[in-house]
Amino acid sequence: MIVTTASGAPGHPGVYLAQPRTRTVLRPERLDIAGFVGVALRGPVDEPVRIERWSEFERLFGGLERTPGGPLRMLPYAVSTFFRQGGRAAYVLRVAPHGDEGPTSLDATARFRLTLPSGQEASLIAADEGLWGNRLVVRLHYRVDQRLEAEVRDDGVLVLPPGANAPAGSLLRLRHPDAVVDPAMRWVASVDARLPRGSPQPVRLDEAAALVAGTRAKVDVVTGALQIDDLSRPDLGGEYLGGLGLRPDHPRWIHTVLMEGRPARTDGDAAARRHLLAPVDDWSDLDFAPPPELSPIDAELIGKGGDRSPLIDGSAFFDPGFVDFHTIDEDSGPDDPDPHVGVDRMARVREIGLLCVPDLTWDGYAPVPEPPTHHPLKPLPCRCRSCAADEPQTDFHTVVSVGGGLDARNADDLDKLAARQERVVELARACGRFVALLDVPDQLSVAQIAEWRSRFDTSYAAAYHPWLAVADPVDGRAIPLPPSAYAAGIIAERESRLGLSWGPANELAAGAVRAEAVVTDAAHDNLHALGINVYRAERDGFRLSAARTLSTDPDYRQLSVRRLMTMLRLTLQRQCADLAFEPNTAELRERLRQMVTSLLRDLARQGAFAGRTEDDSFFVRCGDDLNPPESQALGRLIAEIGVAPAVPLEYILVRIARDPDGSLTVVRDGR
């Protein structure tokens, strides 16, 4: 007999109706998250950070500012283009030159000093290296968060009223009711936490105060507040950390709060957890007690940050030395004995399905010296309207020179750039989880592009041409961008809206105002045959005309097929891992077959397969014929899965025939 109670909970001993076991459902793994590796003004070095909107990138890595005399950083423009195109999420990694110190140089990071009322010094450091840290303004305030009246007991314990917030480590400013005795600063040594919530709160002080038992003393709860203004980005509002404890035993000890935002080499939402400053060394021996008037303390800049981007070359993008690609997997990361850097670090992020390196042409440069300071006794040049020259009128037809990088028109530079791209492609092929989006080097002829193309033969890479320019929001001049940035947004938006089975092509490049190379019909014929995805100029903009990989294998020529097969493999690897160590029974094999069949059936409804029926589209075999007793005895479960991916339409043939009666017949044949 099966019985249940009214509440559904077991009552007396007996047999009860158990909840049915939840059936595992396979969900397609996301491949629309892109990884961007490049040069930025600020931000953590060699730490992949997940962002979901352009404003997060601005706050963490800086905006579209340009360094005078330096090359144009492609990373911010590429990420901006990705989100403008419709991308939803991306990981961003900032590269920097590497030396004996590691990925971050303390010499290039701004440092500050707080001189406490006790005469001791507390050192702080900017969250990451760069010139931006020199424009931080730091001030430590002392605030009175609560004003209370407390009862003084005979044993010297203060009884705070219900609702008071004064945990151990809090600083109290005590005043006698008749204000005859000067205020006294005392620390809360302990709090009786056993009392129920809402009851009076007894606290014991670290030392006795000159208070009369049985009276009611006035109590101010004093906390710290760290105000950090970032003058390099005043529009972002800086940072304010309030309610900070001034002793280590306080739950919001200032050192602990700042360390919670300390940049760490972990994957995640670092944009939400990091602070603009971090403490240096241990502050447990420092006395942060304020003066009686609670006057604030201003921090002093004792070490300026610097810009190390002129030192960045190809070595900053990859792990140094030999790399065994057979050891690459998605589980290796920041806990490795030798932490990875650049593209190799980004490749370990399991969520990315696309990889872009917009600053791969970066090759270091000689920085332009700062202009000399004007002599105070020398008259300034005239700036009146009659003497000043007219400002030039600029528009998007004026192109900003990228400068400072590898020039593909130079044979040696082209070899260096191709070698870097080969390294990226080899990494993508070894990982097998994402597709590397390559930029065809700018200013090359079709014959040179064909020679460059011959270096690659893999379905884990796709190439795009030509470079497309966007209008600079500051002065309207055209900024040439690598075409992979547009492609990443197109692929991500297309997958989110239509699914993997739809080829990521026939979409406009959002924001593109001009192309850096004219692609004729004859050139397009040759480039398409080479597997180069070309943007063609149309009335409404520049449209991506293909979605091919760089593979010579006809089965994996289409990017949608490559990504569909990758998604299926990752889905089975990641979501079926919990089936390991279960009893290898017929029930388990049948459950696996049903799970996979359900996944493929949903994909078939979305048009992912070429067959008219399920039998023509896919099959799943996991029976006893594939799992004989001798195979089961070895702990194996074998399943065979076959699919027939749908190939995107690329050509439409139109035949026009003239009938004898003079009528015209138009026959369209799409293939």
UniProtKB/TrEMBL annotation:
InterPro entries per UniProt: Phage_sheath_subtilisin, Tail_sheath_C, Tail_sheath_structural
A Pfam family that the UniProt record links to this protein: Phage_sheath_1C
Domain spans labelled Tail sheath protein subtilisin-like: 433-549
Domain of life: Bacteria
Domain annotation Tail sheath protein C-terminal: ranges: 551-656
Similarity field: Belongs to the myoviridae tail sheath protein family.
Protein name in the entry: Tail sheath protein C-terminal domain-containing protein
Source organism of the structure: Microbacterium pumilum
Taxonomic lineage of the native organism: Bacteria, Bacillati, Actinomycetota, Actinomycetes, Micrococcales
